[in-house]
Amino acid sequence: MKRVVLSGTGSGVGKTTISTGIMRALSKKHKIQSFKVGPDYIDPSYHKCATGNNARNLDSFFMSNGQIRQSFKQGMERSNADYGIIEGVRGLYEGISPITDVGTTSSIAKALNAPVILIINSRSLVRSAAAMTLGFKALDNQINIQGVILNNVKSQKHYLKTKEAVETLANTPVIGGIVRDKSITMEQRHLGLIPAVEEERIKHLIEKWGELIEDNIDLDMLV
Asked: Which of 6, 47, 101, 211 is the most buried (most CB within 10 A)?
């Protein structure tokens, strides 16, 4: 079963916007089943708008590796999906403990043997984006960071410079970049208490996110 984990370097890097946009873009040609790391029930409502399928939560605090794999398999089979897209939570390695991976996005990637696409907020970064990528790759050699998405780049020139840095210095493919654009952002939620169904702009925004992804991300490299 084809799958990929979309993870950020931390919260607020544009993970949900990019993940939901990828789901929407891929759904135009494929059957997509989405998953969300952790007990979040708000982001999955965006996923459903993008894919037409109910999302599933995967959480290594409440579930064993076997249960994680079984839930993933059931979700894929029930929706007859071509691809499973897993949106992470917070940073790739953030969980309950400062030294173990319980409750982390990385634990889900390992349980499912899924490659990771790392989303970096590239605002004002060039070589530092390569350093971040190297650090995330080095922390756990069981994690396969397959590629990087550069969010919040200032311009095409900025994107190309940062792409060169990451690919040359961190030996990791950059599969696309998103230029910062306030028109595609959504109001910040407080602790996830504003559900997507209450957002008047959500369906329109998700369509815009999908179009943005189609124009700026190499989806063939992703899947």
From this structure: 47
